[in-house]
Amino acid sequence: MQEVHLACILLLTGFLFSSLKLASLTLLLLFLMEMEEVSIVDSCYLQYKAHRRKFSRKSSAPKKYPAERSHVVMDVLTKCNVPVVKIEGHEADDVVATLAGQVLQNGHKVVIASPDKDFKQLISEDVQIVLPIAELNRWSFYTLKHYISQYNCDPCSDLSLRCIMGDEVDGVPGIQNVAPGFGRKTALKLLKKHGSLQNLLDAAAVRTVGKQYAQDALTNHSDYLRRNYEILALRRWFVPFIYP
């Protein structure tokens, strides 16, 4: 039986990845780095990214010598023979999602090291996240079990739930802004029954799926919710990547 390797996709987000205690595992290490120029044609997506960068600048402490630090990291990666992947025209988080899917298709497992909460939508039995715990100065594994314990729902519903409830940090308003009374409890109940936002919207278009206020919200603001999906979903692109 072929040995199942653990593929770890590392994304630079301000924490030194070398603190990860993964030396005892059999790994394929990839380092994903953001390109300076990202080609995005969706105007809504542009506004979202602009808000996110603005929020990040406000909430982050001043960074000293970012260029020098980047060179140091790249030098370490080169000396460790760790491949660095940069895909022009695409954001690193979308590339991570794309490569993670390709790794899974090859029968392997994935660990994504990043504090970016967007990756929680990828969590499964075969996909884990390693999150930084700043106060403890270390990283910790975040698994499917942790997710269910924290949110009381399946990660498959993570993206759909965020589309309905919105994401204040990312500047994406929820449906409660246009349909007061449609809260998390209602959203969870409907998603547990229908599985995904798309299934829920399809069902609401042909029959009543809940109380009248929920039905009205879903039918009257379906475009609003689909726009949120386009903004919050990690995008999978074709990436010329050959898995060993």
Describe this structure in words.
The protein folds into 2 domains: 6-151, 3-Layer(aba) Sandwich (Rossmann fold), CATH 3.40.50; 155-231, DNA polymerase, domain 1 (Orthogonal Bundle), CATH 1.10.150. Helix content is 41%, strand content 13%. It has helices at residues 43-59, 66-79, 92-105, 144-151, 158-165, 184-194, 197-204, 212-220, 222-232; strands at residues 6-11, 27-32, 84-85, 109-113, 127-133, 138-142. The chain has a 6-stranded mixed beta sheet. The longest helix is centred in the N-terminal third of the chain and has 17 residues, at 43-59. The protein starts with 5 loop residues before the first strand and ends in a 12-residue tail after the last helix. The model is unreliable at 1-26 and 54-65 (pLDDT under 50).
Q: Which structural class matches the secondary elements?
A: alpha/beta
Assign the CATH superfamily of the largest domain.
5'-nuclease
The CATH class designation of the largest domain is: Alpha Beta
Overall pLDDT score: 75
Shape: elongated
Q: What is the number of strand segments?
A: 6
Beta-strand proportion = 5-15%
Q: Please give the domain count.
A: 2
Radius of gyration: 19 Å
* Largest pleated sheet: 6 strands, mixed
Please trace the helix and strand order, writing H or E for each element. Answer: EEHHEHEEEHHHHHH
Individual helix count: 9
CATH topology of the largest domain: Rossmann fold
Can you list the strand order of the major beta sheet? 3-2-1-4-5-6
CATH architecture of the largest domain: 3-Layer(aba) Sandwich
Tell me roughly what share of residues is in helical segments. Answer: 40-55%
Low-confidence stretches: 1-26, 54-65
How far apart the termini lie comes to 17 Å
